[in-house]
Amino acid sequence: LDYSPMRNNDVRWNFEKFLISRKGKPVKRYDASSRVSDMRDDIESLLFPSL
């Protein structure tokens, strides 16, 4: 599926990652090349907000 024009907030690749809150809201978006280790701090801040 191709479409034009591409916009900055379009999903560019099917391996992009999204961090979703417990309430189902998107919190952050990561490039397809991001590793879980790159997202660790963001994930932990959602799991343990008071730490």
UniProtKB/TrEMBL annotation:
The UniProt record lists the keyword Cell inner membrane: no
- What GO biological process term is on the record, naming one? response to oxidative stress
Please provide the record's keywords in A-Z order: Oxidoreductase, Peroxidase
Looking up InterPro entries in the UniProt record yields: Glutathione_peroxidase (IPR000889), Thioredoxin-like_sf (IPR036249)
Give the residue range of the signal peptide.
none
**PROSITE patterns in the record, alphabetically?**
GLUTATHIONE_PEROXID_3 (PS51355)
Q: Name one GO molecular function term.
A: peroxidase activity
Q: Keyword Cell cycle on this protein?
A: no
Provide the family line: Belongs to the glutathione peroxidase family.
**Name listed for the protein in its UniProt record:** Glutathione peroxidase
Organism the protein comes from: Daphnia pulex (Water flea)
